Amino acid sequence: MVRYRGPRLKIIKRFGDLPGLTRKVVLKKHNAQGKETGDQKTPKASAYKIRLNEKQKLRYNYGVTESQLLRYVREARRRKGLTGFLLMQLLEMRLDNIIFRLGLAPTIPAARQIVNHGHVLINKKRVNIPSFQCRPNDSISFSAKPKAIALIKSNLNQGENATSNDNVLNSHLEFDQKLLTGKILNLVKRKDLRFKINDMLVIEYYSRLA
Fold first, then answer.
1. DSSP collapsed to 3 states, 32-45
2. What's the domain range around 48?
3. What is the model's pTM?
4. Overall number of domains in the chain
5. Ranges for the RNA-binding S4 domain (predicted)?
């Protein structure tokens, strides 16, 4: 399954807020009595559908394909610890997500584009692979091209003016706005996971495949 490139508003209408996918929000409509028009009772979802929806939310938010997510689940299972948290850790330590968490891009797709264009340096070496797994003590800097620097500064300014707390810097990251350099201090911890999801439902969904 390829990465989703369709209307993002359609996805958040179905699954709710996905800060990694888009900053757009769905405005709730009200009828003449002031009640939300979406208040109608919906049929109870099956256990399979509940797990499927959690998996889809995870996939859309981080912008990974089905095959990529399955590989992350398998890798998480090989490691020691809670499989659900290890899966989230693998996704959070992706380079495109780190760029997003540093506030250098408004969304993960925008961060992926910055990486794809070769603007990002890890330990002073150019890396253009969005799925690159960042490690503790990795340093992040950027190409000296004027366009790249202007884009990073523009995104930083937009992030400062945004009202959302999704890009509040986590304790495992640090960033120097004057030098435009960042550093990975540690692996992300459970308390620093901004995207709230029932990761164990995702693991249960893949139990028949992974």
1. CCCCECCCCCCCCC
2. 8-36+43-90+195-208
3. 0.85
4. 2
5. 93-157
